[in-house]
Amino acid sequence: MILFYSVLAVGVIVLIPSVKKYIRNTKPLEIPPKWHPILMDKVRFYRELNEEAREDFLEQSGRFLRNVKIIGVAVDVSLEDRLLVAASAVIPLFGFRGWEYVHLDEVLLYPSHFDEQFNFENPKEMIVGMVGSGAMEGKMILSQPDLHLGFDNTQDKMNVGIHEFLHLYDKEDGVIDGVPAAYIGKHLIMPWIDLVRVEMSKIHQGDSTLRGYGGYNGKEFFAVAGEYFFERPHLLQRDHPELYNMLSSIFNQEITEHLSIKESKQEEPGRNSPCPCGSGEKYKRCCLQD
């Protein structure tokens, strides 16, 4: 089964940032104590933060959930669902404390993959996440089971929630084009575009550890590379050091200092087993070397 991501937006590069910070309202933000154990169990990024940073993560999650509706379509929305959506949103923005996504009002959770007509009963395509435009502006759709899978498997460089919020991160300058101009210094825009061309060429030549979907276009490259950055930063730093350094600047996060080299809820594979990251190499020749 082939799963792919889709986004409904095209355009040209806009260099004028439009990101806005949270408007701090006067209503107290109370974080229920039961949030912490759920995030500790499900979200590696949160689990490896220090106590002060966890408090910040909880606050940002609370503000996100205050501003954005999470709606189930033929599914019941649990607290865990809500917190995984919030975590997907907070992780890319964690280097920019207090900033929000401008182009999002609600997230729709579907019971499975779907197609571009939003059909999940016998869909013609297997889309697991989508950021809307036009009539769907301000909305995101996520497959509920794939949202959970993204956090359950921390070794495969894939997380649909983070992937789709990276498209929104990219869209903060007004367009999803693979150049997150709202967050990147203007002096880095052309180096980033040049680096993307080089890295996409490596994907097309089969000489990259990024998954193939990143070679589809620039905006999908950014989301795929960002997933890799947040799930397997040490491997990305080893195999694509220039890309890792550029993403560290874009996200304002030195994530290898935050996440440990090995941390997974899955049982570790045997040395000669296929590597769970999807590289096609044996585990001993790939991620076991991290």
Write a short abstract of this structure.
It is built from ten helices and five strands, in the order E-H-H-H-E-H-E-E-E-H-H-H-H-H-H. It has 290 residues and is α/β, with parallel strands linked by helices.
Helix-strand layout with pairing:
Layout (H helix, E strand, L loop, with lengths): L3 E4 L27 H8 L1 H4 L3 H17 L1 E4 L6 H15 L12 E5 L16 E5 L7 E5 H9 L7 H12 L14 H19 L13 H14 L1 H7 L1 H11 L39
Parallel strand pairs: 1-4, 2-3, 3-5
Antiparallel strand pairs: 4-5
Task: Please characterize this protein's 3D structure.
With 290 residues, this protein is α/β, with parallel strands linked by helices. The chain has a single domain, classed as Collagenase (Catalytic Domain). 40% of the residues lie in helices and 8% in strands. It has ten helices and five strands, in the order E-H-H-H-E-H-E-E-E-H-H-H-H-H-H. The protein has helices at residues 35-42, 44-47, 51-67, 79-93, 144-152, 160-171, 186-204, 218-231, 233-239, 241-251; strands at residues 4-7, 69-72, 106-110, 127-131, 139-143. It has a five-stranded mixed sheet with strand order 1-4-5-3-2. Helix 8 (218-231) crosses helix 9 (233-239). The two termini are 29 Å apart.
- N- and C-termini, Cα separation: 29 Å
Sketch the topology as an H/E string, one letter per element. Answer: EHHHEHEEEHHHHHH
Q: Give the integer mean of the pLDDT values.
A: 85
Q: What's the total helix number?
A: 10
- Rg computed from alpha carbons, rounded to a whole number of angstroms: 18 Å
Hey, roughly how much beta strand do the residues contain? 5-15%
| CATH homologous superfamily identity | Collagenase (Catalytic Domain)
CATH topology: Collagenase (Catalytic Domain)
What is the structural class?
Answer: alpha/beta
The order of strands across the largest sheet is 1-4-5-3-2
The CATH class is Alpha Beta
Helix content estimate:
40-55%
Please outline the major beta sheet.
Answer: 5 strands, mixed
| Shape descriptor | globular
Q: Number of folding domains?
A: 1
- Extract low-pLDDT stretches: 1-20, 263-267
